[in-house]
Amino acid sequence: MEGVIEHQIAQRIRQLRRDRSMTLRELSEATGFSKGLLSKIENCIVSPPIGTLSKLAKALDVPIGGFFEVNDTQPGTVFFPKEKRKKVQSRRSSLNYQYELLAPGRGKRDMQAMLVTIDGSNSKFGLQQHPGEQFIFMLEGAMHYVAGNDSYEVTPGDVLYFDARLPHGPKLSKNQKARYIVVHTS
Q: Which neighbouring-strand residues pair with 178?
């Protein structure tokens, strides 16, 4: 199922770019990503992490939820049962983690909520930057989370809130696992 969702996201990104008559070069200039990376994303060779999806959404002028297939019956209201959530494993990128969009849909929203699960034993971590603000609520495990020049030890129940334009990202040792909710604005 994960592979199907990854392909849907890749196809949706390509479709949105083409709908806007944008070339890979134009999208590259709008996002700061190389044409090669964008091509790999559109061909589902690389699964984009959250920060990358956020920059793509901004460049394509859609909410990040626009990359996920969902039928909104009532604009502005989303009920999404747990059993219908789709997990995306970013195993084809260097940032190996799983995320679930908690309130998917194509409607324009000011914030996007996701459930992130990462395992330090098989993940490499890098810092990301994207527009907006970010809120993290730690559910399980432990990690260090870098935001700007600071690193925070985050454990269950802890909250971290920061400007997402700062370089940020999780840092786990090989024996750490973490599960947290992240909400970011565009």
A: 118, 141
Write out pLDDT tens, residues 95-131. 566 777 777 665 566 788 888 988 888 777 778 888 8
Least Cα distance to 114 among 71, 77, 68 occurs for: 68
pLDDT tens string 145-178: 999 999 999 999 999 999 999 999 999 888 889 9
Question: How far is the C-alpha of 158 from the C-alpha of 137, rounded, in Å?
Answer: 6
CB 48 within 8 Å of CB 6 = no
pTM of the complete model beyond 0.70: no
Question: Tokens 């400007």 map to which residue?
Answer: 163
Q: Angle CA(47)–CA(53)–CA(58) in degrees, nearest 5?
A: 155
Q: Which residue has the tokens 């992490």?
A: 49
CA dist., res. 71 & res. 8, Å (int)? 15
Q: Whose CA is closest to 130, among 59, 178, 24?
A: 59
- What domains are defined for the chain? 2-185 (2.60.120.10)
> Smallest Cα–Cα separation from 65: which of 46, 31, 88?
88
